[in-house]
Design a protein that fits this description.
heterodimer; A: 729 residues; alpha+beta; Aldehyde Oxidoreductase, domain 4; Aldehyde Oxidoreductase, domain 3; 7-stranded mixed β-sheet; 20 helices; 30% helix; globular; B: 152 residues; Ubiquitin-like (UB roll); DNA polymerase, domain 1; two-stranded antiparallel sheet; 5 strands; 2Fe2S_fd_BS (chain B); 2Fe-2S_ferredoxin-type (chain B)
Chain lengths: 729, 152
Amino acid sequence: MNTPATPSRRHFLAGATGLIVAGLLPKRRAFSRPSEFYQGPLVENTDPAFTPNAYIRIAPSTIPGDSGITLILPNVEMGQGIYTGAVTLIAEELNVDPDQVALEAAPPDDAYVAADMGTQATGGSTSTIFEWTTLRQAGAAARLLLTQAAASRWNCPISDCTTRQGRVLHTPSGDSFAYAELATDAATLPVPKTIPLKPAKDWTLIGRSRHRVDSRAKVEGRPLFGIDIRVPDMKHATVAACPVMGGTPGDMDRDAALRTPGVHAVLTIKNAVCVVADHYWAAKKGLEALAITWNEGPNASIDTHRIYSELHAALAEPKPIIAKSKGDAAAAMTRAASRYEATYQQPLLAHAPMEPINCTIHIRPDSADVWVGTQVPMWARDSVADIADLPKDKVRLHCQYIGGGFGRRLEYEYVTQAAQFAKQVPYPLKIVWSREEDLTLDRFRPAYVDRLRAGLNTQGRIESMEFRVVGPAVVARWEPAGLSPNGFDEDLAAAISITPYTFPASRLDYVRREAPGVVTAWWRGVGGTRGLFVVESFIDELALRAGADPVAYRRELIRDQPRARTVLDLAAEKSGWTTPLPKGHGRGVAVQFLFGSYLGTIIEVDMTEPKEVRITRVTVAVDCGQPVNPDQIRAQIEGGMIFGLGTTLFNEITLSKGRVQENNFNLWRIMRMNEAPPIEIHIVQSTEEPGGIGETGTAAAAPALANAIAAASGHRLRTLPLLPALKGA
Amino acid sequence: MLTVRVNNTDYQADVTPDTPLLWVLRDVLGLTGTKFGCGIAECGACTVHLDGKAVRACSLPVGLLNGRPVTTIEGIGNDPLAQAVQKAWMDIDVVQCGYCQPGQIMSAIALLRDNPHPTDTDIDAAMSGNICRCGTYLRIRQAIHNAAGLSA
C-alpha cells in the first residue's frame, strides 16, 4: 500500500494553497473491502483511477450499472450512523446518488488523522464536527475537476455545465458524461484555487432524514463484524489473562488441554494464555482443562472499598491542581450569606459492547494482516508492527464494522495481545474473548468523587462555586500530550469548565488519584457524563433549597445563553413541566452543553412502589446545530438515553481481592425492553455548525433521573448507581 | 460425526455432542449471522429457531437436537413473515451497531408466528430476553407492530 506523503489531511485539504489535488498524491491502492456488503478475498484495485483526495475514488472503466464511484469513509461505524452521515456529506457536494456508490472503510493512514485527536480515531462524538467541512470540500473538489474535464471535452465554458446524479450535463445541448467517463481526464487537471461549497438552500441531502446505508446488511445478518471474519486456514482461539492486574500464569495442565478434542496448541505470553482449536467451544474447553493457577502479584488485595476511600481521602488534599478560576471564589464564598456543600460518588464502569472483544490476525515472516473492529486503527496497526517486528507498511489492518464501541475500542491492548500470540504460530488466528474475559478484563470508566460548594445570597442564588474533582486522568495514559501542562485532564471537567451557566465567581480544582488494580479508559460520554451528573444534581439541590422551581432556577443562570434557554424551555413545555403529578411521581430536569450540542431533558418517574423507580417518560429538546440526518439524531439520543439510564440505575464494577466480580450479563444488568421508557425528542432548527450527538443522551440520563427521584420521593441520591443507593436510602 | 439440519440442509459436524449449536453454526458451518453475546443465554444474540420456536443457540448442546430442524437468520429469506419483519426493521432504521439484531429479528418472528397482533406487553414479554446495548428497544417494539400490520 502506498502512503500519501502528506502528514495530515488537514494540511492537504486546507493548506496554504488551499487544496486537494489530483496528481499530487500518490495513487491510493486501497485494500479494504470493495463494498461494505462484500467480504471476500481482498482485492487490490490496480486500475488507474481518479483519486482527488483520500475520500473519493472514481474508476474510469465501469461495469454497466456501476457508477465506478467509491467513497472511503474516514471514521469507523459502530452504530452511531457515521457511515450514513459521511456518505451524505460527500454525496451532497459530489452530486451523486448515495445509493449508487460503493463504500470502503478507510485503512490506517496519515491522511485520516484528525488533528485534534492526535491519531486516526473515532470517538468523543467528534466525527460530524471534524468531517462537516472536510467531506463536503472533498466532494466539491472532485465535482469541480470532473466539471472542468467535461467542459474541456465539449470545449465550452464551465458555466454551460451542471452536475446531477453522478453525471456532468452540457446544458445547451443536453449531452452528458458519467463521472466515470471523465475520471482519467479529471485526474490530470491542476489544482482549483478555491472550492465553493453549496449554499444551504441548494442542499438536497443534508438536513433530511435518510435511511442508514447499513440497515439491510445488518437485518440480513451478513458477516460484517470482526467476529464474523473467516480466512483460509484460520484457527479459532480464546484467551485468559490473569484476572488480577499485573499477575502472571503459574502452573497449568497443558496435557489435559491438548487432550481436549479439537485443541491444537496452548500459547502463553507474560500475563495470559491462549488455547488454539478447531472452533471456539473446543478452545474454551481446552482453557478450562488447563486449570491455570495464577501468580496474582501485588494487586491481589485490592477491593473497591479501598478505591473509594482513597478518592474520598483526597478531597482533603491541600495542594490541588487549580484548573480554572473566575473572580475570587474563596472571598466570595466567605462573604456569602450561606454556604452549601455536597459530595458525589460515581463507580467504575464496564463498556460491555454486544460484540465481545476479538481480533483475527495472521503474522507471516514478511507481512501481517489484521481484521479487527477498532476506533484507533493506526495505533492498532503500529502495535502489531512493533510486536511482529515488521515495518508499519507491511501490516495491513482491515477495519470491520464494530458491534458496539462506547469507548472500548479506543483501546487496542487486545490487538497487541493477539499479535503476541499470533506471532507464535504460522496460521491465521481468530481470537474471541469470552464475555467473562470481556467484562472482567475491560479497561474501566474511572470511579470519581466530586465535592461541590456554593456560596449563596439571602435568596439562595449563587455568589460563588467551588468544584473539586478527584479521580484518574485517562488522557495521561491514552495520549500524554493531551494532559495540560499543570497536570489537568480537561476532559473530566467537560461539563464543569464549559457550562451554559454563568457564576459570579468560581474555581475548579483537581486532585489526581489513579485507581489501583485497574486500567481506566474512555467511556460513552467521557468527562461530560460524569461531570454533568454532579453539576446538574447540585444545581437541583440549590434550586430546591432556595424554594425555587428547578427549571426557573436554571433559566436565571443561563440568561446569556439563548440556545441553552431554548432547549430548556422547549423540553419543559413539551413535558408538561408545570402540570401537577400524582403523589409519588416526579419530574427531573437537566440542561447541558456538551460535544457542541445543547440538550434539555425532563425525566418523569413513578415511585409509588417503595424503593422502586419506574421511568414513565423522557422528553428531550436538542439543538445540535445544523442537523445532517434528523432521524439518526433521534436514534442516537434514544439509544444514548437508554444506555445512560440502565447504567445510572444498575451498574458498578466492583473488585474483591483484585478480581472484578461482575463477569456476565446475569451480574452486569443491562436495561431491557420492558424497562425502556418512551422517549420523545424535539429537534430545534438550527444553522449553526453541527455538534456531536452520540454521547449526549447518555450524559443527560443520570442527573435528570436522580433529580426526578428526588422530586418524587425526597431522596437525594449522590452515589451512583441509583438503584442500590435507593434500596439503602 | 453429528448430523445437524440447518436451513433445510443436512450438515455433518465433527464436534463433541456437548458443543453448543452456536459454535457449530458459526465456526463449523460458517453461518456467522447468529451472534455470540454471553454464552449463558442471558442476552439473546444467538437466538435461532428450533422447530419454529425461538431458542438460545449458545446453551443448546448440538447432541440434543436429534435431527430437529434449525433455522438461522441466513435461512429466513423466503418466509413472508420474516420478510415483513426485516422490511419493518429497515423502514424505520431500527439498527445501530446491528450486532444483536439477527437475534432480535429471530425472536420477533417467533413472537409474531404465535401471536400475529401482539400488544406492547406481549412484545415486552417476548423480547426482554434480547439485550440491545445501543438501546434500540423503542424502534424494535414499533417495528414489530408495523410488521404485524404488514403481514396482516
